[in-house]
Design goal:
The chain is mainly alpha-helical and 172 residues long. The protein contains eight helices and two strands. Helix 5 runs antiparallel to helix 6 and helix 7 runs antiparallel to helix 8. The longest helix has 22 residues, at 71-92. The relative contact order is 0.10.
Length: 172
Amino acid sequence: MNDRSGLIEDMQRLYGKSGDDATRTLGNVVAESAISLRALYGEKGSEGIREFFQRPEIVKLCDVPLDSPRFNEACNELATREHAHWAAQAQANPDAPGPAAGAAISGTFRNYIQQGVATVVRMHDRGDNENLASTVAGLNAFSRQTTTTTTGQTKNSAPPPAAPTNPTGRTL
């Protein structure tokens, strides 16, 4: 089992699960991210990810607590290394869609995602549900942003939110 399920199992065994009393680390962020990816994609494109996160230098990064002054540095380094891992996998397996998809996510964007997940983990642990809800809403809004293609056409990455309505049901 060298896939997301195995990775989640490893991370939860090493760093605890959401809601327990363990010190939160970058490993918890990895676990929560992997849980989300598994919910979206199952095991597709996850070949070899468990093995990557078992490397001693990667485990050392995952050990860094969320409240450590080194967290941002560790988060960025992990994102950079994971991108390099997927880029190497894509080069070695040019016909495999999983590594190509992994390589398409830059280290900078991986770091952004990890920082966002870390914020959600921190808020959840503090029981800060009001700010957690607004943070998740902000992440949802971010996922609806549009991009401009090379031909100048705009495309949405997700459907736009529904227009607000008033009590009569008419669109405002």
